[in-house]
Amino acid sequence: MIPIRPPTVVSASSSFAAPGFPGFSRARLLSAVGAFLVLCASIASPSAQQQAPDAVPVGTVKTEHKPIAKTKNFVGRVEAINKVEVHARVTGYLEDVLFKEGDFVKEGQHLYTIEKDQFQAAVGQAAGELADDKAKKLLTAVEFQRADTLTKTQAGTIEARDKALTADRHADAEIVFALAKLDTANINLGYTDIV
């Protein structure tokens, strides 16, 4: 069991005595605080009494009486009346842009240029294939003529003449195919100028 002690009663007196400070009275405490405050006020007063800085120059404008136009502000959004989406019909690198975004453009105006080198090469290749097919056609026409003459004189066979005829007709078809390929290459070359 733990013994319980009764509370200690401290008597009220005029002297404020703290442990370790005997005879320290309330009057002494108040006078010390007062002296400290007077000392702080005397130190702060010279710095507070410094001169005010010079006046800062400011610009002034003379007022005038003018009529004011009535205006109203609205929040809005601008949208173009006509819009056109431009799509290239061939793929390639964009070489030149001939207008500025937001400018008015007329129908038929040149807008973009796509690099033409690859398409010009395709035209040249198709033209070369056409020339090759025309040369082959000359050979097949001569061979068919020879086979037909030999067949009429009974020196050649009908089978050889028929093969020569088929080769000649095949050469005609190759020329038509090469012409179409050349036309396609020229069309694609034309699509490099976007109007």
Features:
elongated, mainly alpha, 47% helix, 3 helices, three-stranded antiparallel β-sheet
Helix-strand layout with pairing:
Elements lengths: L25 H23 L45 E4 L14 E3 L2 H36 L5 H33 L2 E2 L1
Helix pairs in contact: 2-3
Verbal overview:
- The chain has about 200 residues and is mainly α.
- The chain has a domain at about 95-195.
- The chain has helices at about 25-50, 115-150, 160-190; strands at about 95, 110-115, 195.
- Strands 1-2-3 form a three-stranded antiparallel β-sheet, with no helix packed on it.
- Helix 2 packs antiparallel against helix 3 (about 160-190).
- The model has no long low-confidence stretch (mean pLDDT about 85).
- Termini, distance in Å? 109 Å
Helical proportion, percent range: 40-55%
Order of helices and strands: HEEHHE
Tell me the fraction of residues in β-strands, as a range: under 5%
By helix and strand content, what is the structural category? mainly alpha
User: How many β-strand runs?
Assistant: 3
- Report the average pLDDT across residues: 83
The best one-word shape is: elongated
With strands numbered from the N-terminus, the spatial order across the biggest sheet is: 1-2-3
Integer-rounded radius of gyration = 55 Å
| Main beta sheet | 3 strands, antiparallel
Q: Note the total helix count.
A: 3
Contiguous uncertain segments of 5+ residues = none
Concise structural overview:
This protein is mainly alpha-helical and 195 residues long.
